[in-house]
Amino acid sequence: MAPAATRNTIFRLINAAQHSSCPCHGCRSTSHVHAPAFHQLRKLATPVNAVEKEYAFEVAASNLRFGEGVTREVGMDLKNMKARKVGVFTDPVLAKLRPMQTAIESLQSQQDLPFEIFDQVVTEPTEESWRRAIAWAREHDFSHFLAVGGGSVIDTAKAANLFTVYKDADLMDFVNAPIGKGLPVDKTLRPLIAGQSFLPSLSAPINMISVPTTAGTGSETTGTAIFDVTSRAFKTGIANRALKPVLGIVDAANTESCPTEVHISAAPSLTSDKISGLNKKGPKYQHPGYQVDHPIIPHGISVALTGPAVFQFTAPSSPDRHREALAIFNNTTVTDPSVTSIPDSEIGAHLYEAIARFLDGIDVPRGLKAVGYTSDDVPMLVEGTIPQRRVLDLAPNIGDVVGEDGQEHLTRILEASLEY
Length: 420
Prior knowledge:
Order of helices and strands: HHEHEHEHEHEEEEEHHHHHHHHH
Helix content: 25-40%
CATH architecture of the largest domain: 3-Layer(aba) Sandwich
Structural class: alpha/beta
Radius of gyration: 22 Å
Mean pLDDT: 80
Strand content: 5-15%
Distance between the termini: 13 Å
Number of domains: 2
Low-confidence stretches: 18-48, 195-206, 270-281
């Protein structure tokens, strides 16, 4: 067993991820098999026709309130927003825990602030669970929304908010193309606490308050909501800045009730979010620490399983940035001879090994086979990833190569991720 990852290593890794200049949003003993050499597999040719690339990006900052105990202020916030009726979203487990109790006490402390609670959010939401939440929200016609939970809760509240305003729309109307129609959001949504955003074409802020109870979701700062398309075994979602909450409540006290395994899942989610099409409900696998009655591979774990192979694949696109990542994982600096002596063509293989050791130190399952997948499942996983064009089109040597859909590369990445 490799030594456990140090607190300093984890801190430096997260810090580097937070300060990246990127514009877009696994037995590791001395006897294990060396990682596949992706730099030998890839054919990096200059495309005949250039792909038109984005020349600029925008950072739309969210309103975040940090501080232990700030959950107690959400009632006052909603009252100040002149809320007429608040829809509170959470899941069956959190409904019994302190974060939710604190939020409800805060709402009850305000006079004339009616609210209703939807506590049936499903961990890793599906079409069916979203439709239930949307139908419930439409019945109540809430003026404001409050989400208390992780990414599943926050994303479900975003969807309920959207379809409360668009009362006659179907779920797939706003889902990312080509899965859905990808229609634009041109109406002002209801307030939801989690982060503020203004639409240039609208005169009022879209609002929603979110109280995250995990450290890895990030959903309180984005206009993205993700769900499982169970009939096609992949994930997709809705992405529009109109969904972004008006305020994110970052209360350290709300993570105290998280099991250790949930805390661990947060770090890979922050640093390894690459293949989002991986179906998180693997065959008969249920990750420890999650109180659900169905198989589940948490988001942070699912992206970590393919992390070593993904970063090896992307290494040739920017050896210097990957060299910096290698130095962080090796708990050294980019000027260390052990790092500078590595040729650019081998950075990917070294980074593969370093990430694998790190994941082993935090007890992440050792590849896709460890969660129940086999080589026979690779075509299915690739098929579920191909429609994720919004993500794939940002990937080096996929999105910037004419006619490249990523199928060949995805197949090799998943094959290399079966076991380490």
